[in-house]
Amino acid sequence: MSAFAFEGRTALITGAGSGIGRALAHELGRRGCALALADLRAERLAETAAALDAPRVTTHALDVADRAAAAALPAEVEAAHGGLGILVNNAGIAAGGRFEELSEAEFDRVMDINFHGPVRLVRAFLPLLRRAAEARIVNVSSLYGLVTPPGQSAYAASKFALRGFSNVLANELEGSTVGVTVIHPGGVRTNIATDASTPAGADAAQVARERKQFEKLLRLPPEDAARIIAEGIAARKRRVIVGNDARLLAMLERLMPVSNWSVIRRLVR
């Protein structure tokens, strides 16, 4: 089977203002995709768009937690590009802190953006994707959609949910013209740690220590992550593990599905 072709297709990328989303915009643009870029932060989105080399670029202000905005976006993209070939659900946030420290609102906000947002966009765009000769849904989960570190209850829950949704969706769409790829990036050098919210009552010194430790693990350049993701899409892979750390921990999770954290904790230290 020939590779999934990027040339002449339109890709919608959420969270395109920075990190993996911005790097993917550059990567897919170089591969011949027209781009519809969405992000909540207009200034970051404008910076991404200004630096791109792509056949056509449009920008769309979007909070993926906004139901009405998500439902209206397909009409905007179709009007601007005539259709859609690739939907990349990349937008996401993190919230540090133990489960007992997180308020219900903080927990729900992470779930709404990281899980319900992609579900909304898949529901909204699936009719448009079905009109393409071939299309791909790309959902960006995480290493924390494979393993479960303390202090990441909301983030891991959202990414495990996105992984499960993606796998079911892939099974349901098998044999159709729409394929599904779920991405599990490891430590990619993005703003996710600095942008992460923290519980109001959390110990500030402890939060600072955990954030510093987490930032040390963010080593892979986002450009390298984008290349790996694009290669996975081209190969029509259902799952793409990004980074040596993610591959190692994915293997460990398969070997030790219950007790892997005892080993991971020693490796991190």
Which secondary structure elements does this structure contain, and how are they paired or packed?
Layout: E1 10-14, H1 19-30, E2 34-39, H2 42-50, E3 57-61, H3 67-81, E4 86-89, H4 104-130, E5 135-140, H5 153-173, E6 178-185, H6 192-195, H7 204-216, H8 222-234, E7 239-242, H9 244-255, H10 260-268
Parallel strand pairs: 1-2, 1-4, 2-3, 4-5, 5-6, 6-7
Helix pairs in contact: 1-8, 3-4, 4-5
Task: Please provide a brief summary of the model.
With 269 residues, the chain is α/β, with parallel strands linked by helices.
Question: What can you tell me about this protein's structure?
Answer:
The chain starts with 9 loop residues before the first strand and ends with a helix. 50% of the residues lie in helices and 14% in strands. It has a seven-stranded parallel beta sheet with strand order 3-2-1-4-5-6-7, with helices on both faces. With 269 residues, it is an alpha/beta fold. The chain has ten helices and seven strands. α1 packs across α8.
